[in-house]
């Protein structure tokens, strides 16, 4: 049986609460001169977080881990693109 909109919203809210209840860690998202955005978007299990760029912020550990993984993959992809452009 399909869930009602209210049931889905309740599940999403409890997921967000679980994320927000996690241990907080301090991170600083570096500025990027190729992308001068003031915020970056991170999604964890359908929960969206907009994080300030260039200043220390405290976020739930899982949010920091997702952002760090994305950042590492971006750096790796940029390094691989540089290799191919040197050919």
Short descriptors:
single chain, 87 residues, alpha+beta, two-stranded antiparallel ribbon, two-stranded antiparallel sheet, 2 helices, 4 strands, 47% helix
In short:
The chain is an alpha+beta fold and 87 residues long. Helices cover 47% and strands 25% of the residues. It is elongated, with a radius of gyration of 17 Å.
Descriptive account of the structure:
With about 90 residues, this protein is of the alpha+beta class. It has one domain (about 5-85). Helices cover about 45% and strands about 25% of the residues. It contains 2 helices and 4 strands, in the order αββββα. The chain has helices at about 5-20, 60-85; strands at about 25-30, 40-45, 45-50, 55-60. The chain has a two-stranded antiparallel ribbon. Strands 2-3 form a two-stranded antiparallel sheet. The radius of gyration is 17 Å and the shape is elongated. The N and C termini lie far apart (about 55 Å). About 5% of the residues are buried.
